[in-house]
Amino acid sequence: MKLEEIHKISVLGAGIMGHGIAQSFIIGGYPVILYDIQDSVLKTATAHVEKNLRLFAEFDLIKEEEIAPCLNRLTTIADLRHCVEESDFILEAAPENLQLKQKLFEEVTSYCKKDAILASNTSSLTLTEIGIQVKEKTRLVTTHWFNPPHIVPTVEVVKAEWTSEETFETAYALLLKIKKVPVRINKELPGFLINRIQMAMVREILDLYEKGVASAEDIDKAVRGSIGFRLASIGPLLTMDLGGLKLWFNVCKNLFPLINSSTEAPKALKRLTSQGHDGIKSGQGFYDYARDFSKEDLDKAINERDQGFLNRLKNLCID
Ligand SMILES: NC(=O)c1ccc[n+]([C@@H]2O[C@H](COP(=O)([O-])OP(=O)(O)OC[C@H]3O[C@@H](n4cnc5c(N)ncnc54)[C@H](O)[C@@H]3O)[C@@H](O)[C@H]2O)c1
Questions:
Q1: Where in the chain are the domains?
Q2: In this structure, how many other beta carbons lie within 10 angstroms of the beta carbon of residue 225?
Q3: How far is the CA of 140 from the centre of ligand 1 (A)?
Q4: pLDDT tens digits, one per residue of 87-116
Q5: Which residues are CB-neighbours of 148 under 8 A, at least 6 positions away?
Q6: 13 lines ligand 1 (CB under 6 A)
Q7: Is the pTM of this model over 0.85?
Q8: Which fold does the domain 3-185 belong to in CATH?
Q9: Mean pLDDT (whole number) for 151-161
Q10: Which fold would CATH assign to domain 195-314?
Q11: Ligand 1 atom 34: the closest Cα is on which residue?
């Protein structure tokens, strides 16, 4: 299927990711049918999309008068057949469970058009496994969005074993059209690109924290004001070119043997979770939220986070 043949989009699963993904497509001008097995989730999803569109208008990312037409392009439904039968691009954002996703795609293929593209938002499973029951496998592709998906620009477009060049390029072009920042991932590796990079960094951060090298506040401040600051403007490979490859070569040679390369679960997370801590949801994580937030203020914390992200999105310049 080619980009110009895509007229309708279905999003399956209206949770954290699904409703934000739906929002990106309606802002991009596409009619979207959002499906979930729970009616209550669909109601909450619509309310979140409306609230987030207003926030986008507040930050001049869309015009006030675009809110109503955007909302008119969104339909919610609890019937899978009706959701997918006329769609050209079907994206699943259902729970991260292999059997559930396999069954969902199998069912979808019995209702949808033969050439509709089937995309998965899986974080850790492979499309090769998820699509095992799908007959026309060349139309399968992973599009991996980042939370919050309506705000974070990058979407990894992953070419799995069976993905055809046409499906891969159409998914890429579609995301570009709705003003996301798609990235071609040519091989399907667990964690794709960004989660592998993120996990390598997380391993070292948690080790430094556990060793008491710096406090949680100071680790966060240091990363935000240095590599975080730099990476928001230029990528890591350009950073190396600008700094000089000889220097980077020597620093890597000296430090690689000394930094953490453990394959065990991180001690800091093991300790905190075994004490019943789950971050802001439980009131205690690396920070003590009882001091700053009550549990009910999770929405407030997310809203503050999104306002910071939206300020950045306004000045986004990634080509
Ligand atoms: N949350 C993240 O930060 C994040 C980031 C990137 C990718 N992902 C991936 O996105 C997918 C969804 O994650 P999420 O965080 O939105 O989960 P979630 O639990 O918030 O939402 C999943 C939704 O799917 C619905 N659901 C359950 N069974 C279903 C079925 N058979 N068909 C359709 N919908 C069904 C649930 O009712 C729920 O509303 C997962 O594959 C996850 O790995 C999540």
A1: 3-185, 195-314
A2: 10
A3: 18
A4: 999 999 999 999 999 999 999 999 999 999
A5: 16, 20, 302, 306, 309
A6: yes
A7: yes
A8: Rossmann fold (3.40.50)
A9: 96
A10: N-(1-d-carboxylethyl)-l-norvaline Dehydrogenase; domain 2 (1.10.1040)
A11: 13
